[in-house]
Amino acid sequence: MKFKVSVPATSANVGPGFDMMGLAFDMFNRFTFETGGDGLSITGCEAQFAKAETNLVYKTLEKTLQSYGRPVPAMNIHFDTDLPLCSGLGSSSTCIVAGIMAANQIGGLNFDKGEILRIASLIEGHPDNVAPAILGGFVAAIIENDFVYWHEYSISDKLSFYALMPDVRVSTEEARRILPKSYSLSDCIYNLSRVPLLVEGLEKADEQLIRAGCKDRLHQSYRLSLIPEGDKVFNYVKESDNAITTYVSGAGPTIVAIVVNDDDSFGKEIADYCDTLSLNWRVRKMHVNHRGASLKIIRP
Ligand code: HSE
After folding, report:
1. CATH number of the domain bearing residue 73
2. What is the pLDDT of residues 258-283, one digit of tens each?
3. Distance between CA 176 and CA 174 in Å, rounded?
4. With left for phi above 0 and alpha for psi between -120 and 50, is residue 54 left, alpha or beta?
5. pLDDT tier at 104 (50, 70, 90 boundaries)?
6. Which CATH number belongs to the domain containing residue 232 in this structure?
């Protein structure tokens, strides 16, 4: 059996929606699975991840098959990845989702998308990357009693998202460890009250609502301290007349700029600005991916 799983990049939190909402983008990690042969081989990824114990796709696949009493066959897994690692664009979620979808295919488990989302969220610990990775679009989700509740929101096609990706890695563990253990009531209210405004703003491409809604007091200021030149880029975008606003994507270091009716002015402006910085910042315009993860059979 040979098949390919494609999983989109995701941008979690989107400002105030810490651990509960995210967007899927048109940038993909692709994984080709071919069963048979002798043992396990993993190709196309960094050498440190080419082993059963360190490869998140394989570990997820193996754990899923074993927990449903299915044998784990010999196989090759080939990585063809566009997403930078530890960049805040959901690369580990792509591995978890691909591992579960591959187990579903190999083990004939008949999972629907809801079950894939439930398993993936329990592995990741929060659903805000895996939900849009599986479903596509703009999704809010919560885990309660091992069950995932989710809702897909519409998002205006007048909006563009620029991912500003510095050439550094930030580990999600570290970016979670530095967060406070408790928050003031006013900081909680600050974020909670903004989420519905932002959701409405993104649906209608309403600049005022997006600007007012896409703010945060729970994680971004702490995480910007882990991103070299992060503050500079964040503040530059906030002041730009060509962008509505900005947020730290997931745990960072990628910073996302939201632009309405894009005429490429922002893309040119930010590329020029990034050229003045010390780090190499890659600028990529993203469109929302509405399809989510997909699986294509190459050979039954
Ligand atoms: N919501 C998560 C965080 C996304 O901000 O830590 C990164 O996995």
Report:
1. 3.30.230.10
2. 999 999 999 999 999 999 999 999 99
3. 5
4. alpha
5. very high
6. 3.30.70.890
Question: What is the arithmetic mean of pLDDT over 167-196?
Answer: 97
**7 and 133 belong to one structural domain:** yes
User: Computed over its alpha carbons, how large is the radius of gyration of the chain?
Assistant: 19
Ramachandran class of 109: left when φ > 0, alpha when ψ lies in -120 to 50, beta otherwise:
alpha
Expressed in angstroms and rounded, the spacing between residue 251 Cα and the centre of ligand 1 is 5
What spacing in Å lies between the alpha carbon of 53 and ligand 1's midpoint?
A: 23
| Cα distances (angstroms) measured from residue 109 to each of 68, 100, 104, 106 | 8, 10, 5, 8
Task: Give the predicted TM-score (pTM) of the model.
Answer: 0.96
Asked whether 86 lines ligand 1 (CB < 6 A), one says no
Residues 148 and 234 in one domain: no
112 with 177, same domain? no
Range of the domain at 9: 2-154+289-299
